[in-house]
Design a protein that fits this description.
single chain, 341 residues, Oxidized Rhodanese, domain 1, 10 helices, 15 strands, 20% strand
């Protein structure tokens, strides 16, 4: 399947990877992985756990290729990460400030030992086949993301568990889903990893036919033409873009600098929204507002002195990155249009 938005050649290569695999020696693997990444000047975050690996990192093309070889072919992992979900993209500047190689008990925290995607997982559904599945009347469609993510956009007809943390998904299943009634359940998430674990959990609870979107919403938005899409709104992402739309073009959402909740244009038009200080989602949190007001004050003082405040610099860097990505996307669309017969 071809991509909906081709990427240009840029100086930094970004690798997003996850794989549920039996890694009982994760603690022993961590130092060697951290050493290789440091030697290659790779930055970003990788999480190792007995259940697998998850993370996103960036570096030169040669550095990322060396890391991929280490993980998938010739390193101490052996063949255990073969078949990992790996996505490559490009960046004009280094998108991460530092390197973190963390050891955790889970790569996706559900706190349900019976959910083990390395041993039992639902049926993967390619983005091209997703519309046909979710339009069936006998399929229950569930969004496994948290409420603030669902609020920005989701698939038509999808159920919202209204969770604030993924660990609460178990309670939703217990109270809202029934294996004797819900014979076919389809699930999705941002990149595929959460719903993969959720599908394993449902199987452990007696659900017989469980499906999940391969590559998640991001892969769907990348490869499915907008005219055929069943996704409404924008997809929240965990970086300075905040959200993306079809073709992975940056969306209109921003973050509240006080509570970090994503905000739509309608949220920013609400009377409770004060840039950098409050939004409709934290309007009653006066302690948070006081801290935000002090931060804004320090940024203003730094600006008057002609100095860069840390928070000010971070906001400006994010704004610069958003502007750059918009320009790159517009240039790519223009080239694609010019190349059409």
């Amino acid at each position: 399947m071809t991509r909906n938005l081709p990427q240009d050649a840029l100086p930094y290569k970004v690798m997003a990877i996850y794989k549920f695999a039996d890694l009982p020696d994760a603690a022993q693997l961590q130092p060697a992985l951290a050493e290789l990444c440091a030697a290659q000047a790779i930055k970003g975050t990788l999480i190792l756990a007995p259940e697998g690996i998850n993370g996103t990192v960036a570096g030169t093309a040669a550095a990322i290729d060396a890391l991929a070889d280490f993980l998938l072919h010739n390193g101490p992992f052996g063949q255990r990460l073969q078949g990992a979900e790996v996505k490559y993209s490009a960046a004009s500047t280094m998108p991460f400030l530092r390197l973190k190689v963390r050891l955790k008990s889970e790569i996706v925290t559900l706190r349900a030992p019976q959910a083990n995607p390395a041993r039992a997982v639902g049926t993967y559904v390619e983005p091209a086949d997703w519309n046909g599945l979710i339009e069936r009347n006998d399929v229950v469609l569930v969004d496994t993301r948290n409420d603030y993510e669902v609020g920005l956009g989701t698939f038509q007809r999808a159920l919202d568990p209204k969770t604030q943390h993924f660990t609460q998904f178990k309670d939703y299943v217990a109270t809202h889903l029934d294996p004797s009634r819900d014979k076919k359940v389809a699930m999705f998430c941002t990149g595929g990893i959460r719903c993969e674990k959720a599908s394993s959990y449902l199987l452990s609870q007696g659900f017989e036919e469980v499906f999940h979107l391969k590559g998640g919403i991001l892969k769907y938005l990348e490869v499915v033409p907008e005219a055929e899409s069943r996704f409404a709104g924008e997809c929240f992402v965990f970086d300075e873009r905040v959200a993306v739309g079809h073709g992975l073009v940056e969306g209109e959402a921003t973050l509240c600098r006080a509570c970090r909740h994503p905000l739509t244009p309608a949220d920013r038009a609400d009377k409770a929204y004060v840039e950098g200080i409050s939004c409709p989602y934290c309007a009653q949190d006066t302690a948070r507002h006081a801290a935000a007001q002090e931060r804004q004050k320090q940024m203003a003082l730094a600006a008057r002195r002609g100095a860069a405040h840390l928070g000010d610099g971070a906001v400006q860097a994010a704004a610069d990155a958003r502007a750059r990505k918009r320009a790159e996307a517009e240039a790519s669309r223009a080239r694609n249009a010019a190349a059409r017969p």
